[in-house]
Amino acid sequence: MNIGDVDNDELVLGALSSSLAGAFGRDAVAWRCLSGRRAVSLCLDGRTRPDVLLMDVSLSDMSGLRGCLIVCVWDHLIERKRSW
Q1: DSSP string spanning 31-71?
Q2: Are 9 and 57 in contact (CB under 8 A)?
Q3: pTM for the model
Q4: Contacts by 58-66 with C-beta closer than 8 Å and gap 24+?
Q5: 45, 38, 48, 53: which is closest to 4 by C-alpha?
Q6: pLDDT tens string 9-50
């Protein structure tokens, strides 16, 4: 399992990433970032797409809910295109 971790607070991001690494192994956190836009970009790229995305709801550049919605809608559109 690979995890993408997003929080605009570096201290929280570090603590959460350390906890995840302790619980799931040191390679479990595939990437971490401070920006919602960057996280969305990483999620939409098949090479860096995580199995699990942990995104803070109140990021400075976008709502974490909005970021998750973008990723979900994109997934839905891609899956639909494959079924045509």
Answers
A1: EEES-HHHHHHHHHSTTT--SEEEE-SB-SSSBHHHHHHHH
A2: no
A3: 0.86
A4: 58/8, 59/6, 59/7, 59/8, 59/35, 60/8, 60/35, 61/8, 61/35, 61/36, 61/37, 62/36, 62/37, 63/36, 64/6, 64/36, 66/36
A5: 53
A6: 999 999 999 999 999 998 999 999 999 999 999 999 999 999
**Tokens (6 digits) for 24:** 């799931």
The tokens of 74 are what?
């994109």
